[in-house]
Write a structure and sequence with these properties.
With 85 residues, the protein is mostly helical. It contains 4 helices and no strands. It has one domain.
Length: 85
């Protein structure tokens, strides 16, 4: 019984690490370097899947819709075709 629990815990950890790796790879492929002049929330927005910060996800969704076009992040996203609409 203990061995089965240990195996299940290890499998869960492996899946969690695979999910983390996939999210890091997704962010890396975006090639969106932060610009300090955009502020912390816009700079961290591409990392919304890695950070437990609700505002990061909200800003990412807004950036994806074309909001904050004044920001470097918004301009880079538009150049890379990451803006919907």
């Amino acid at each position: 019984m203990k061995r089965e629990k240990d195996v299940a815990a290890q499998e869960s950890l492996v899946h969690e690490l695979e999910d983390f790796r996939n999210e890091v790879e997704r962010v890396a492929r975006l090639e969106l370097a932060p610009d300090l002049d955009d502020g912390v929330v816009l700079g961290i927005a591409p990392l919304h899947g890695l950070v437990p910060w609700k505002e990061a996800k909200e800003r990412w969704e807004e950036l994806s819709k074309g909001k904050y076009d004044w920001s470097t992040m918004g301009q880079r996203m538009r150049e890379r075709g990451l803006v919907r609409g």
